[in-house]
């Protein structure tokens, strides 16, 4: 069994977290998954240059995918907190840091950790 390097672990985790959030928003189609793969490939290069940045990767991949989706599909993920006004996307905070969260900058609230959007987007906790 090959030991998995912390770097690979961080990349795997980032991929899984962002895919989970895409599925929560029901946009995990084949071409969207390839956007995630593309971002992970680019961030692999990035984190090889700067291994200390491994814990930032999930937030960065989330932002990469958000940017890529904005060009192709529109805003993602839409804010599940504000039930009024124009639909708006959540932001990742911190932009470059560990433990990234989706936040609504309008309401000024943390909505969910990256990877846990399903729980915030109407997913009720199991009784
Ligand atoms: Zn909002």
Provide an overview of this structure.
By secondary structure, the protein is mostly helical. It has one domain. The protein is built from 4 helices and 3 strands, in the order H-H-H-E-E-E-H. The protein has helices at 6-24, 30-49, 57-72, 117-120, and strands spanning 91-93, 101-104, 109-113. Strands 1-2-3 form a 3-stranded antiparallel sheet. Strand 1 and strand 2 (101-104) form a beta hairpin. Helix 1 (6-24) runs antiparallel to helix 2 (30-49) and helix 1 runs parallel beside helix 3 (57-72). The longest helix has 20 residues, at 30-49. The model is unreliable at 123-127 (pLDDT under 50). The chain binds zinc ion. Zinc ion (ZN) binds at residues 79, 81-82, 88, 104, 106-107.
> Gyration radius, to the nearest Å?
15 Å
The low-confidence runs, each spanning 5 or more residues with pLDDT under 50, are 123-127
Mean pLDDT: 89
Q: Helicity level, as a percent range?
A: 40-55%
Shape: globular
Number of domains: 1
What profile does the largest beta sheet have?
Answer: 3 strands, antiparallel
DSSP strand tally: 3
Strand order of the largest sheet: 1-2-3
What is the terminal separation in angstroms?
39 Å
Bound molecules: zinc ion
Give the SSE order as H and E letters.
HHHEEEH
């Amino acid at each position: 069994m090959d030991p998995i390097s912390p770097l690979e672990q961080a990349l795997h985790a980032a991929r899984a977290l962002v895919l989970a959030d895409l599925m929560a928003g029901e946009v995990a189609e084949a071409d969207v998954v390839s956007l995630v793969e593309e971002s992970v490939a680019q961030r692999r290069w990035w984190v090889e240059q700067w291994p200390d940045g491994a814990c930032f990767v999930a937030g960065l991949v989330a932002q990469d995918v958000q940017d890529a989706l904005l060009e192709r599909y529109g805003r993602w993920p839409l804010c599940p907190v504000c039930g009024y006004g124009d639909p708006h996307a959540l932001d990742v905070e911190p932009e470059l840091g560990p433990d990234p969260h989706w936040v609504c900058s309008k309401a000024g609230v943390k909505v969910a950790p990256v990877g846990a959007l399903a729980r915030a987007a109407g997913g009720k906790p199991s009784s």
